[in-house]
Amino acid sequence: MSDDLPAIEVDFASNGAPVVIIGQVETFDPLEAIRLAPALVNPKWVRAYAQVVNHLAHGSDFDPIMDPAAFHTKYMATYDAEDPDEEVAPGAVRLHNFGIPDFTEIAPPAMVGTNLVFFAENVFMGIPYKVVMAPGTQPQYVPLDLKE
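RE: above sequence
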């Protein structure tokens, strides 16, 4: 297996579906992306792997968290800027509606054994999810526990 990655581009197909272009081949499936670029599973390329998997799974609905400290700072700045006494309104998304995650749990993308593990922010809600993708499976997104 080569340690080099081919050119990889994330985009959206004409029908709006997330697509990844590896070399000159389009794929809509994370498992196919690994077949086209086997070096993705090398820990050296774990950030690229997380971005490819995340994009194919959810397009721009989630952002992989590459810098946990920056995410912590941004989350708390948003949380602290909210009025905690503001009434919940339909369609209004506030971090106070969810709570505060255990920021020590959030880490940069990593290979844990043979599993890809990363954390991603739900762009609309602003809350973090843990993402695990075992070999031969699709990624599983699970929201972190949040406390008031």
